[in-house]
What does this fold into?
Amino acid sequence: MTSSEMIDEFIMFEIKSMLAYSTLNINEIANSVNFSEANHLTRFFKQHSNITPKEYRNNYQNGSYII
It folds into this structure.
């Protein structure tokens, strides 16, 4: 695993945790993990998980999630 992949994995863990355990919106989460815009976070998240952050949060809330 490259250092870049490790960083991406850590960022994904942080985003997933915030989506699952907080009420922060996507803009607030993007600011928290230093994305310049929410759509950049959404693109990054979808690229690494094949679903959007909103879909992930909905799946978590409905009990069908993987962190």
